[in-house]
Design goal:
This is ABC transporter permease subunit. The protein has 335 residues and is mainly α. Helices cover 64% and strands 5% of the residues.
Length: 335
């Protein structure tokens, strides 16, 4: 396997994609949707600031967080379309065998196709950067925070592209692999939350409440509560949980109630998701920011699992591209 071989396959994939004019229209539509969302979000936050007196310095927090969550959601819809037919589509058109009989190895073909789809996804992400910079200029978002969030989104796009390509190598028909790719995205996002909620009743345990001293009562009582620390790992692979938990802490400001410098999390959706994920690992659960922030992180497990899953999908792609082929699926042709 050589880098030049990977570049040859990636360049060929790019040429095939550029021959079709639909990519230009898709890029235009992407920018239009992101621009419309950013404008409406900024307008809505401006109205909220006028009515509630939100500090201008913190207006960038909800704008940047909302924008990046929206971008991640769109990317999860676009990424499967970039790679879900990269292998079986060429096989259906009879062009894959032409590449396989060249000196290119199976790994060069697999990584070249993956590089092309991931780079295309990064182009979509790059078109979002001006709007992300707009949110940063609104204040409240540090440069490090913005870079980390964009890097995590880029990595998640690569994972989805790798998984979609693996399904493209596994299934003979492009429509099947595309459908399975979107089902996989659904399972990673909505499905993980559904499974987490359904698993909570299985973790119910009896707790005893003792009132603190000076509360005016000494009565204790027992109740049943779910033990989320037993099933928190079900949420770990969720891309939105990974993004929210991996985001660095926002800037601090003086809390008039406690008299301490505390991070601004009330209007930051990324911090809210991250603290919600970490609260699932705390027993008993607490609403204190310092305790939740000190809880073990969730994103290393989720991101590591997703990266390993993507690497396994690339390995599957390379295995399915090896020649000579001793067994083909029914109805699949060589050339």
């Amino acid at each position: 396997m050589t880098l030049s071989g990977i570049k040859i396959v990636a360049a060929q994939e790019f040429r095939v994609r550029l021959r079709t004019g639909r990519w230009r229209w898709l890029l235009i539509a992407w920018v239009a949707v992101i621009a419309a969302f950013s404008g409406l979000l900024r307008y809505g936050l401006g109205l909220t600031r006028s009515s509630s007196g939100v500090a201008m310095a913190n207006l960038g927090l909800p704008m940047f967080g909302g924008l990046m969550l929206f971008v991640l959601g769109l990317a999860l819809l676009v990424a499967p379309a970039l790679a879900a037919q990269s292998i079986n589509g060429d096989r259906e058109r009879g062009t894959l065998a032409t590449v396989q009989v060249t000196p290119l190895t199976a790994w060069e073909i697999a990584l070249g196709k993956f590089a092309a789809s991931w780079t295309t996804g990064l182009v979509f992400l790059a078109l979002t950067l001006p709007f992300a910079l707009w949110a940063v200029l609104e204040g409240g978002v540090g440069l490090l925070r913005a870079l980390v969030v964009i890097a995590v989104v880029a990595l998640l796009i690569g994972v989805i592209c790798a998984l979609a390509q693996g399904l493209s190598a596994l299934f003979a028909r492009g429509i099947t692999s595309t459908l399975m790719s979107y089902l996989l995205v659904f399972a990673m996002t909505i499905g993980t939350m559904i499974v987490f909620v359904l698993a909570l009743p299985l973790t119910m345990a009896e707790k005893t409440y003792t009132p603190p001293p000076g509360s005016g009562t000494t009565e204790t009582y027992t109740y049943e509560a779910p033990q989320t620390q037993r099933v928190w790992w079900l949420l770990a692979p969720n891309p939105f949980v990974i993004l929210g938990d991996a985001t660095p802490a926002p800037p601090t400001q003086l809390n008039p109630r406690t008299g301490r410098e505390e991070p601004v999390v009330s209007m930051d959706p990324l911090s809210a998701i991250g603290l919600g994920a970490r609260s699932a690992r705390v027993d008993p659960q607490s609403s204190d920011y310092e305790e939740l922030a000190a809880a073990p992180a969730v994103w290393p497990y989720g991101l590591g699992f997703n990266v390993l899953l993507g690497a396994g999908a690339l390995w599957l792609s390379a295995q399915r591209l090896r020649t000579p082929v001793r067994q083909l699926s029914r109805g699949v042709r060589i050339a």
